[in-house]
Amino acid sequence: MQILRFLALIALLAVSLLSDDVINKMTPKQLYVLQTVRDVAKSIPDKNGRTYENTLSAICLTESSAGKNIIGDFRKKKSITKASLGPMQIRIATARHVSQNVKKLRWLNDLSDAQLAGRLLGDIKLSAKIATHYLVLLQNNRKDHFYAISGYNGGLSNRPYYNRVMKNMDLVNRLLSSGKIS
Fold first, then answer.
1. How far apart are CA 44 and CA 47, in angstroms?
2. Residue 91: pLDDT band by 50, 70, 90 thresholds?
3. What pTM, to 2 d.p., does this model score?
4. Residue 52 CA, distance from chain mean position
């Protein structure tokens, strides 16, 4: 029995050391992206006044490793405008959907798909605004956090995606407690 406790303690220590390693390997650019996402998310509450900076930080880590991989779902012979773009991995169609539901973002409808793709790739704050409004729309409509997070990745119920976001939520909490983000 004592040997099992000892092995569990060793495993816990190893996981703890590995998680500290992940925190220490985050680049200043990744930390900047996460902080920008958090700052934007804090300014956009849902209908109950709740903000989702921790959730959106975890989604950013899940989607792009905090801006490290800014082009997703892109294959040869596929238009860049069909890919998931930017630190929050937003598709053009999703950005247009959000812009139709958020008055402050209606100006996005004046951009061509190529222009919008360029903005999503190069403007962290815009990517974070669209993502935050999108999550708030999902949260307001679905009411359940699991279904809202699942919806961010394009489904009603997506347990594997939700679990990855929750795993990254632990990393967000460690980054917060270490003072690397606020």
1. 10
2. very high
3. 0.86
4. 10
